[in-house]
Design a protein that fits this description.
Layout: H1 14-27, E1 32-34, H2 38-41, E2 43-48, E3 51-57, E4 61-65, E5 68-71, H3 74-110
Antiparallel strand pairs: 1-2, 2-3, 3-4, 4-5
């Protein structure tokens, strides 16, 4: 949907609601960040329980959520992708540090 409209009197525009949801889900440690189609289809996905947001970035930049297709500007796309990749990197580093600490404790126990 490319039209912006109020949603149930909340005063927020549809686009703002989707952007807020995407940003909040990126930071949520329980969400899954998927980069599987980043190179082949220029899209990433954020999944949380039964919900999935796709951020598409080829010629037509938009966020897809169920039947909604919310167009975004190039600058919004760049910002979202930057936030997304920073979160992917942060999670990878956290996971690596956790594994390193597990290894250290195993080495101490085995020594």
């Amino acid at each position: 949907m490319s039209k912006e409209k109020d949603d149930t009197g909340s005063g927020k525009l549809e686009k703002e609601m989707v952007l807020d949801a995407v940003k909040n889900l990126m930071a949520n440690p329980c969400s899954t960040l998927n980069t599987k189609f980043l190179n082949s289809h220029s899209k990433v996905a954020i999944m949380f329980q039964d919900h999935m947001f796709e951020i598409h970035g080829e010629d037509e930049k938009f966020i897809k959520y169920m039947a909604l297709k919310v167009p975004i500007t190039s600058s919004e796309h760049k910002e979202l992708l930057s936030l997304f990749m920073a979160e992917v990197q942060r999670r990878a580093e956290d996971s690596s540090m956790k594994k390193l600490n597990e290894l250290r404790s195993l080495i101490r126990v085995g020594a």
